[in-house]
Design a protein that fits this description.
Helices cover about 30% and strands about 25% of the residues. It is built from 4 helices and 7 strands; from the N terminus they run ββββαβββααα.
Length: about 140
Amino acid sequence: MGGPYLLGIDKGTSVTKAVLFDLEGNELAQAQAPINNLAPRPGWQEEDPQESWDTLKRVIRQALEGVDGREVAAIGAAGYMGACWTIGHDGREARNGIVWTDQRGASMVKRWREEGVTERFFDLSGNAMVAGLTLPLVAWLKAN
């Protein structure tokens, strides 16, 4: 194989994937690994940040096996639609990452819906407010 290459990365909810393409869009290599979802309480969905980072590094290395990384011309990255991954003052993860499927922010969304906040949010963002978005999760963390 000879570059330049394009690398696509998807940090999903159930699987982390990395795919290597040539400039014509042909898939040359790919790797994937399942995500270890944690459910410490009913309705809660979390991931261990270090485990997620290690998994991401592993699938990228596997997809690039035999390729000089300097030949990667561009990287496209995608991830799930919302979540809350907090970082402390020391630059390290402050807790497990909260995944977008988590429901602990549902009480915030319910209250905001009654107060008209979710309608205003939609007008500004074009997105519906759901419990697993960053805003309700951060509000829940602050309240709890």
